[in-house]
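Notebook entry, structure prediction.
Reason for the run: the old model in the group folder had no record of what sequence produced it. Starting over properly, with the input documented here first.
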Amino acid sequence: MADKILKSANEAAEKIVEWAEEHHFETCFDRAQRLKPCPIGESGACCRVCHMGPCRLVGQDAEEKARGICGATLPTVAARNLVRMIAAGTAAHSDHARDMAFTLLAVAEGETKDFEIKDVKKLYRVAGYLGIDIEGKSVNTVAREVALKFLEDFGRQKGRINYLKRAPKKTQERWEKWGVAPRGIDREVVEAMHRTSIGVDHDPDHLLTHGLRTALADGWGGCMISTDISDILFGTPKPVKAEASFGIFKEDEVNIVVHGHEPSLAEMIVDVVSEPEMIEYAKSKGAKGINLGGMCCTANEVLMRHGIPTAGGFTNQELGIMTGLVDVITVDVQCIMPAIAELSKKFHTKVITTSEKAKMPGAIHIEYDEHRAKEIAREIVKLAIDNFPNRKTEGSHITDKFPLICGFSHEYIEYMQGGRFRGSFRPLNDAIIAGRIRGVVGLAGCDNPRVPSTGIHKYLATELIKNDVLVVSTGCGSAACGTAGYLTPEMALEHAGPGLREVCEAIGIPPILHVGACVDNSRILTILSAMAAEGGLSDEIGGMPGVGIAPEWMSEKAIAIGCYFAASGVPVIFGGESPVGSSEEVTRIMTEVWYERFKGALHFEPDPEKILELTYKYIDSAREALKLRKYEPGRFGVERKLMSMADRRKLESAARPHEGVK
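New structure, fully documented this time:
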């Protein structure tokens, strides 16, 4: 790093970037260097919600003096901009969830033959959350009622979305007190857009309060609904071994990549690539077989359930094509770079769009329909096989890959701490109380080409586990850890602090738990709720020794996630410059006011070392407030000696006069 500035902190990715530079191929890293962010828009000081503007609220004392043409102040404009980001992120996750609800309904009503309910136990558990009686009903009847109940949450005009009841009672009381309990998902998104249009809501605190209500509709609505339906239809994840990085692509097999965020079609492709007829067809074209891999969160969905390998996150999609080995990359929605369609023309790769909501110039469009899902999957796989003979020799062929363990759902984390009949969160709570685990961090969010991509994820993950912080990761944060070789139990032995290592060894888990795609941040919410219900720590999510970090975020979805965690009681730290940094008042509301009301906050901090410093401050302050043992680095690192039976008897004898004292 002393000799050159890395574009990606992932060695394999950096090799492809260097190859691309030598061969004059442009990547997102090049565009990030060439296109500098607008300093006014980057800090939230630009208003463009009407045609009188855009208005740039800059200059000396802009916080107090700057006004748009309509008279809007800088804090109002910055708050509006953030709320619009929340609304867009919520819409993205929740539209995904709506499609999943309609798929569940189609399965329940027998309208699609290709899907089935794979986890009946999870279906019944969800029915219980929704207050649906399952006695004497068929599985499909229960599934239909669950799907319809979920769909109500989108169009509800009054009342509360169903899953708010899953939060601790005290957390719910905070939401009601401050008026952020969401009514219906669509209603909150629409109202957010209305409030932020010209001439409506001008009070920054009032605007941001509704932003939190919209974000909660995402976390406890769209994200949680999508996660639960995916588990019901495709199976609840449990630990599975897989591989990560560009070395997953095989030179002698047809390589297909599923990319995006929706699992339904990807699940069908998983089935189809193993069909004997398809394998024989691939062999007839000169391939030895069919190899399926993934990118972004569609990758995480099939990785968690089937062990399908991943080539990484957001910034790896162009680089994957430049290996020269990808025959087809099929994309659905969210985080798809349109640059891949143009880039693919310089190789042999076919880019296929599959969603009715998302087309791309230069790509082939094969529209997904759940009523004939497997038929469409076969069409895509056959197209990939037919393209195999067109493969060119050029490309940066990378062989690096790393093993990983993923699949840590809420249900499995509960099971691993006590088994089928005694599963609970008590061991985790006890480890935190005793100080073996200092706290918990959710390390999530995107990877970003404006920094050495994935590097901040890797740095923070290493430092956190070294200091006995258990890490749960999702989305591209998980991909960053996986492609660096950080998702194995051996990682605990090599890098984790002594207390965390002891816990990981006892349970047999990595110190970084991959819990799923970006919508699966909802699993972290339910885990925190279960920890609160278990007792011994906080009786609400707020006050737990935990922090959320999105060090390389770039998407509006990340803002929605960060805000629903803040409203739920979790301090959240985003990397990079603040999108509302132009306004001291908006910054104060997000950090101080939200913390006072909800025990959560939203910070933006570009310095990774300061991110760590703030994380430890929040965790240690929470431990102190809960009157837990002060965390002492290395306290559990003293070598222990096995005791003889005679020594044990002496200790037991000495302890008898003090029975009950721990």
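Summary: The longest strand covers residues 254-260.
The old model has been moved to the deprecated folder.
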